[in-house]
TrEMBL record:
A GO molecular-function descriptor: branched-chain-amino-acid transaminase activity
N6-(pyridoxal phosphate)lysine carried by residues: K201
Residues in coiled coil: none
Protein family per UniProt: Belongs to the class-IV pyridoxal-phosphate-dependent aminotransferase family.
Organism of origin: Propioniciclava coleopterorum
Protein known as: Branched-chain-amino-acid aminotransferase
Secretion signal, residue range per the UniProt entry: none
A GO biological-process term: L-valine biosynthetic process
Cofactor: pyridoxal 5'-phosphate
Keywords associated with the record: Amino-acid biosynthesis, Aminotransferase, Branched-chain amino acid biosynthesis, Pyridoxal phosphate, Transferase
Pathway noted in the entry: Amino-acid biosynthesis; L-leucine biosynthesis; L-leucine from 3-methyl-2-oxobutanoate: step 4/4; Amino-acid biosynthesis; L-valine biosynthesis; L-valine from pyruvate: step 4/4; Amino-acid biosynthesis; L-isoleucine biosynthesis; L-isoleucine from 2-oxobutanoate: step 4/4
NCBIfam families membership: ilvE_II, PRK13357.1
Highest taxon, organism lineage: Bacteria
């Protein structure tokens, strides 16, 4: 049952002209809308005080648990404007379900999916003018997150937590457009391990990936792909995205979820769309040897990475301290077909046969 949010309109909301100037060149994560959502959880009381308030700094006690023990989670999702001016969310309930999974792993309180989706809808509704026109893959990026806001230095699950939602109008994640990128491969560094937090969407995983990502930058690579560090016997994911291979015989291959890999919503959508396009979806364990040898031998002809922010980005090749492997399909034909099919659903250019879209405005 929907709850009632206390809506406090921002007294310093931007003018329509100022919003239009931002939407003309939003970049990625540079500008934020006029409002944010806040809901508080306290032990014994549960979730309470849902409100929409002006966007602004948070007031946290210096001893807030999130600042010391990293007890937090987040999601990434988007709102899309269709040609008729309407605004839609893409699979928001799946984000809500994954948010619950992350919360359970990080000992944070369970936020019902219905309340999660309503909170997102409340923000998108009040700040709908920040949802850009569809041209050029512009959208409204939405960041729901939960932090341990209790002022307490003991090592235990927080007894006061704050859930917030903020939003940012964005252009394409890769400003240079859709073209192949190179990926650095490492088994020296790890973002997660067996029994760890790899399947949770928490900040620590991303912080752990940065050292390897910057190592990749030094070798001309855009992202880093992690090989499981302990046994070094399987490919996992990139620093912030899932990875796919396309075989010469039409298989759409991605590493199986093992508890160390994030269950990507874009990943799941690609598996469904790929099958609709005539590919054979395969989720299985992939060793680094098979992965790289398959590229060298032509078994795998295309590769791409995917996530909410970037959608799908073609991969030209992989590099590591042991060498370099280039994909043979440098026209990225099948990758682009999949990418276009996903975007066409998100922007309402093709019928939503999967019932993934939810209208907000």
């Amino acid at each position: 049952m929907p709850v009632t949010f206390d809506v406090q309109p921002s007294p310093s909301a931007r003018t329509d002209a100022e919003v239009a100037e931002i939407l003309a060149d939003p970049g990625f994560g540079r500008f934020f809308t006029d409002h944010m959502v806040s809901i508080t959880w306290t032990k014994g009381q549960g979730w309470h005080s849902p409100k929409v308030v002006p966007y602004g700094p948070l007031s946290l006690d210096p001893s807030a648990a999130v600042l010391h023990y990293g007890q937090e989670i987040f999601e990434g999702m988007k709102a899309y404007r269709h040609e008729d001016g309407s605004v839609w969310l893409f699979r928001p309930e799946r984000n809500g379900e994954r948010f619950r999974t992350s919360a359970a792993r990080m000992m944070l309180p369970d936020l019902p999916v219905d309340l999660f989706v309503q909170a997102v809808r409340e923000l998108v509704t009040i700040d709908a003018r920040y949802v850009p026109e569809a041209a050029g893959e512009h959208s409204l990026y939405i960041r729901p997150f939960m932090i341990a806001s209790e002022a307490f230095l003991g090592v235990r699950a927080a007894e006061e937590v704050t859930f917030l939602v903020i939003a940012s109008p964005v252009g394409p994640y890769f400003a240079e457009g859709v073209k192949g990128v190179d990926i650095w491969v490492t088994d020296k560094w790890a973002r997660a391990g067996v029994g760890g937090t790899g399947a949770a969407k928490c900040g620590g995983n991303y912080a752990a990936s940065l050292i390897a990502q910057y190592e990749g930058y030094e070798h001309g690579c855009t992202q880093v792909m992690f090989i499981e560090a302990a046994e070094k016997d399987r490919v996992e994911e990139l620093g912030g995205m899932n990875v796919f291979l396309i075989s010469a015989d039409g298989q759409l291959v991605t590493p199986a979820l093992t508890g160390t890999i994030l269950d990507g919503i874009t990943r799941d959508s690609i598996l469904a769309v790929g099958e609709q396009l005539g590919l054979t979806p395969v989720e299985r364990r992939l060793s680094a040897q098979e992965f790289l040898d398959g590229i060298a031998e032509g078994t795998f002809v295309e590769a791409f990475c995917c996530g909410t922010a970037a959608v799908i980005s073609p991969i030209s090749g992989f590099k590591s301290e042991r060498g370099e492997w280039r994909l043979k399909g440098q026209d990225f034909a099948t990758t682009v077909r999949i990418r276009d099919a996903v975007l066409d659903i998100q922007y309402g250019r093709t019928p939503d046969r999967f019932d993934w879209l939810q209208r907000v405005v």
